Amino acid sequence: MTTGHPPPSPQQPPRSPARIGLVLGSGSARGLAHLGVVRALDEAGLRCHCIVGSSMGALVGAICAAGQQDQLAATFQAFDWRRTLSFFDVVLPRSGLLDGARVSELVREHVGSVRIEDLPVRFAAVATDLMTGQEVALQSGDLIEAVRASISVPGIFTPVRRNGSILVDGGLVNPVPVSVARAMGADVVIAVDLNHQIVAGKNFRPLIDRTPVTLPDAAPWLASYRRAMHELRERLQASEWAKGLALARGVAPAAQEPQPSIFEVLLASINVMETRITQTRLALEPPDLLIQPRLGHIRFLEFARADELIQMGYDAAQHALAQWPGLRTPDC
User: Fold this and answer.
1) More confident residue, 245 or 83
2) Which of 42, 63, 98, 249 is deepest in the core (most CB within 10 A)?
3) Residue 134 and residue 115: Cα distance in Å, rounded?
4) Active-site residues: which are they?
């Protein structure tokens, strides 16, 4: 006997919203643009399943994963060139000029001493194993140690020893680690590349700037930058290591012709390398949305330009989002 009612149709499972992975690339001071990108994503209602960072992107990403991005922005907006230099306390080098203790303190101020797995948003910091050359995605354990490893620019910061490995800057192997976000389960990847203009930008014309610092008030940031670089060079040249090298060569430090400091040479060389690696890896592992703020004019220590950098990241993200069809499924 029939009831006159059609048999119930099988229910379709609800479509799961896309899990968004946010990838924050390397970039030294340019990494402050990430804070503007995150702000734009928040305003668009895009909540992230995971955040992956390389080098400076790892530092910003860790604090964003802890929900402290506004506090970090306020910290950097209060930076001047003297505060920037306070992070460069040159030590007697063994495997790096700086031990990274000040950077660790900065992260601890914003997130405390936490483990990666305890963050409210899944997070990974990408580093490079110096012994094997392999990429290492740090997804558990001490957060500060992971950030320190990811930002350990070779020759500048001392490496981090972790589980038998010697870890340095993640930008050496994966400056914009899209592949890591996908491996963490992201269906949609938004990536931020800060280095695409660097090789053609002002960072390399010239590498060093010897012009006097007597500039009009219209360019206070440039005067501050030049003062900072002059003081940093003096610190490096006054270190016991630099004096010993000069004596070994039979040259008095004051008698040497002006040369880029070891700091400038290493950072500039790594910028070139990371830019080329980024171009190759993004071609092989493209994200679903690529955000590329135009930062070719920003030098690697210009943290005192935080307001400008954050705004540039925000504007670039808004422009990219406005043209992105994937914005139709914002939740994750």
Assistant:
1) 83
2) 63
3) 23
4) 55, 169
